[in-house]
Design brief:
By secondary structure, the chain is of the alpha/beta class. The protein has helices spanning about 135-140, 145-155, 175-185, 195-205, 220-230, 245-250, 265-270, 280-285, 300-315, 330-335; strands at about 1-5, 10-20, 30-40, 50-55, 85-95, 105-110, 115, 125-130, 165-170, 190-195, 210, 235-240, 255-260, 290, 320-325, 345-350. The chain has two domains: about 1-140 and about 320-350, Quinone Oxidoreductase, Chain A, domain 1 (Alpha-Beta Complex), CATH 3.90.180; about 145-295, NAD(P)-binding Rossmann-like Domain (Rossmann fold). Strands 1, 4, 5, 6, 7, 8, 15 and 16 form an eight-stranded mixed sheet that branches. It has a six-stranded parallel sheet with strand order 11-10-9-12-13-14, sandwiched between helices.
Length: about 350
Amino acid sequence: MRNAANADTASLHNRQWLLKQRPVGALRLENFEFRQQEVPQPELAPGQVLVRNLVFSCAPTMRNWMNDAKRSYRTPVALGEPITGPACAQVVKSAHPRFTVGALLVGVSSWQDYSILEPDNTPVPVITVSSDIAPTDALGIYGLNSLTAYFGLLRIGKPRHGETLVVSAAAGSVGSMVVQLGKLYGCRVIGIAGGRAKCEWLTNTCGIAAIDYKSTELTTGLSERLARLAPNGVDVFFDNVGGAMLQTVTEHMAVHGRIVVCGQVSAYDSDQPAPGPRDMMLLVYRRLLMQGFVLGDFVDEISSAHDELMQWVAAGKIQRHDDVRNGFVGLPAAFLDLFSGKNTGALLVKVANVT
């Protein structure tokens, strides 16, 4: 993928949000820079597609991509270049046999109106989208975060009927899917989320026990709640947060429990690396499995997983949980809402309509 401003024919009006400076500590609006310009339409190399971005997903892991190379697990966003992140986009020009003009796709794009993607040369799969699926659904309930939840829980966590599953950031884009999949697989699910409204959604819509971490001390109150709700220990912990929450839940893991490390959002907006559990001997004594993963590990199974998700949604077994904003100009402000907990579900920003 590269900047769509490399061009040589008919012009395109292209708005961009660029990384102005690398964040030190908490991300701020001052780290972003807006630019708009007329750019020539590019010539494509074989295997490339020119897309018009329709909806962006604000995913916490994008914060890592703004760090320098020493702290980013993938190639970081270069200063002065567009922010990268998941998007649903429409193909406007193609030099790739699988992606025709007018088709919709989901993949990692960039915060600009037009981007050039290379579907065969990206660590995150580029997925084609059926014409009967709305772009917000393609990026939300059927999107990359839902697939991340699917593979993380079912392939790494391997839940069994009757087991206790705990999910951190349980009302977020990944967590809200994990809790619903856990219910489908017969688990007793406990969701940890921040704020009354999020916990009420988990309880009333998903039918699970919920712990509001904003109303309790993570080192005492959370532990006491877990002891009451999971007296026999936690069999599977799906962790999106890390830090103190990971430490506390690890202390309540059952023998032969599994810890699925999906994200560490508590450390994303910090200068410090994400810490692990303080007492690693807990993993020995309780014979715990602790494993991280990325969606690209399961690229060959994405099509079948996507079909299964669609069947569950059609049957009413999985509910949407999206927070859809509108407007390209508001992208950075929406992204910052992730780190203050102001979003309610998968945070999507719609910037254009399908043509």
